[in-house]
Automatic annotation (TrEMBL):
<dbReference type="InterPro" id="IPR006650">
    <property type="entry name" value="A/AMP_deam_AS"/>
</dbReference>
<dbReference type="GO" id="GO:0046872">
    <property type="term" value="F:metal ion binding"/>
</dbReference>
<dbReference type="GO" id="GO:0005829">
    <property type="term" value="C:cytosol"/>
</dbReference>
<dbReference type="GO" id="GO:0003876">
    <property type="term" value="F:AMP deaminase activity"/>
</dbReference>
<keyword id="KW-0479">Metal-binding</keyword>
<feature type="compositionally biased region" description="Basic residues">
    <location>
        <begin position="214"/>
        <end position="224"/>
    </location>
</feature>
<keyword id="KW-0378">Hydrolase</keyword>
<protein>
    <recommendedName>
        <fullName>AMP deaminase</fullName>
        <ecNumber>3.5.4.6</ecNumber>
    </recommendedName>
</protein>
<feature type="compositionally biased region" description="Basic and acidic residues">
    <location>
        <begin position="1"/>
        <end position="17"/>
    </location>
</feature>
<dbReference type="GO" id="GO:0046033">
    <property type="term" value="P:AMP metabolic process"/>
</dbReference>
<keyword id="KW-0862">Zinc</keyword>
<dbReference type="InterPro" id="IPR006329">
    <property type="entry name" value="AMPD"/>
</dbReference>
<dbReference type="Pfam" id="PF19326">
    <property type="entry name" value="AMP_deaminase"/>
</dbReference>
<feature type="region of interest" description="Disordered">
    <location>
        <begin position="1"/>
        <end position="52"/>
    </location>
</feature>
<comment type="pathway">
    <text>Purine metabolism; IMP biosynthesis via salvage pathway; IMP from AMP: step 1/1.</text>
</comment>
<feature type="region of interest" description="Disordered">
    <location>
        <begin position="167"/>
        <end position="229"/>
    </location>
</feature>
<comment type="similarity">
    <text>Belongs to the metallo-dependent hydrolases superfamily. Adenosine and AMP deaminases family.</text>
</comment>
Amino acid sequence: MVDSTKSSRDQLSRDYQGDQPESVPHSIHDNEKSTSSAATEGHDGLQDGMLLRDLPKRTTFYDPVAERQMSQTDAKLFYQRSKLETHTSAVSLRDQNSQIEGTANASVSRTLTEYGADTPTVDRDDGMTISLLTIFDTEPHVTIELSVISKNIQKILDIRRKYIALSSQGPNDNPRDEQNWEIYPPPPEPAWSETNAGPADFPGVSSSAEATKAKRSSPSHRRKPGFDVGEDFHMDDLLPLPAEDSMTFRLDESGVYQVSCRGEETLPAVQVPTIRQFYMDLDNILTISSDGPSKSFAFRRLQYLEAKFNLYVLLNEYQETADSKKVPHRDFYNVRKVDTHVHHSACMNQKHLLRFIKSKMKKHPNEVVLFRDGKYLTLAEVFSSIKLTAYDLSIDTLDMHAHTDSFHRFDKFNLKYNPIGESRLRTIFLKTDNFIHGRYLAEITKEVISDLESSKYQMVEWRISIYGKSIDEWDKLASWVVDNKLFSHNVRWLIQIPRLYDVYKASSLMNTFEQIVKNIFQPLFEVTKDPSSHPKLHVFLQRVIGFDSVDDESKVERRLFKKFPVPKDWDSKQNPPYSYWIYYLFANMSSLNFWRKRRGFNTLVLRPHCGEAGDSEHLAVALLCCHSISHGLLLRKVPLLQYAFYLEQVGIAMSPLSNNALFLAYERNPFHQYFKRGLNVSLSTDDPLQFAFTKEPLIEEYAVAAQIYKLSPVDMCELAKNSVKQSGYEASIKRMWLGPDFDKPGRKGNMMVKTNVPDRREEFRYHTLLQERDV
């Protein structure tokens, strides 16, 4: 019956097709359609209304048919993995795994051999290895595409590792991380003895405490944390300074300082990549990051990582809480946390600054604080000129908080640094180089340091500016820090370089970009060669971590040149692009680090603002040659770069409250997504003066994130641990905060009695990362 019905249907179909008349064009429109049909004959993928140019072409890197079959491939992946994982018995699982691998390798080994590709594998949590050929597909075009994607990603990672190694920014490149590095003033002694504090579940605590105590020498000056800030620092304790070195330095024709041995000035001691090589490597990264199949692969892997973390939390949330309850004397409030991105001029909150200004107005109204228009002005005269008294001042009068009027208006945000909108008040209270030599800023800085030391568990890495306008900026800044004794165990410094060449050029402060390079780096090479030439700068640099590059990233970067000129020839009024600034910071820092490392001085790292707004090229530049970045919001739009940041665990200091006021609403911030996927993120405050309301802005940042994103105590402790590992503190300090083996991965490097992060969380993060790197 079925066969007869089918035969009848086939006969009707043939009869119907036979009765159809031949297609004859009856109009111009029909004629065009027939012409178009003839032109596209043989292209089955062409749909109505599509042009021939719209048809996806098959290349070595892209196959439209394979992409349409991607969902089927993923289904096969899920099925095959679940099929393997259902067998819990070790013997049966091993037998089945070998059987599957043997079948898969037999079917496609010839294909891989033809293309010269190695068989990729994935290490499972239980120690077994599964061939990726059984996971993805055994069809040649899919296997080859995955092989190409894998090689492209590895190429990006290899380029980055080359640049990081060359510039001495790696984890073991800094002499300050060595065991014999002396920190002056020394850190305070632990407030409680760990000898009998840890239960049997946490071995090794007492031995690490004793080792730390044994290494520390007894200082001649001690003070109680939070009191008499700077009184434990004496310049004489650091004398005599190291002697002059025999190596020499010079600025070459390309705008890069070259270090060489005496008598071999033409042979640089370190081969810094030329700007041409830099842009070629950058172009390689950008090309790979925009490749369609690679983007799809990275996007799916990131989705998988996020889903895997969600599943982990569902299965382990209560056990993590139980593990945390076993730890004595540790919770979120007393684990160390570092504010990895905060600007020094905005390190206090508005209430603190208001109290300080009122105090100075009441106690020292007749102090001369400003020289302007040929006149010396007292503090009372300055406020009289703006028609205000101490009684009139309030938070609203100061008007320094970034409200809704600053969203996407970076120009308005910069004006918020001026109290009451008056630049002269900013000069008096928030500048290091003014008529009173920055004394007011030093005093309020000591008050902030006192609060930090009293809290004990909060540290900061303050950004302070070197503009590159004059050659003596470094000496002035170092003198301000040393003379005011702004040294604290809770504080380290980064030097931020504002990208303001166009402003200096317009005001005739300089003629070429080379002058900025000289003003920034020449004093650093001089003090490295002979510390006695800039003694205060030598001492200050011991507390400096690295460089930051700051400005409004959303500014349009116009490409005026097919080939960028070298700095001595850059005399245009146009500001150089972001990549140009970063290259010359990186190139000169590479030479400087080589020399400083050879002399046993601490090296510097590059940690710029990046990815807050503007072009995604900035992120590729940072991935190429930077130690870590601040913000990184635009990574959400470039999945391949985000995946590369994950694989390399590049640090990202994120500030959701700052972004909420300037560029991105809080609920759209990708911070929580990055965290779940396993990127190396930490929380920071950016500008407490503009964004914070409380005395502890870092705790405020954590509190808001915990409420909005529903972070668990373990999540917050993990973020705190990330901030310590990202920071530029000495390795001996990190050992005291995180444990003696903090630099080891997974469970081996985690001491829960110090970090309050369960071992199972660390193991999950580590094994997930290993699996992704193996893919």
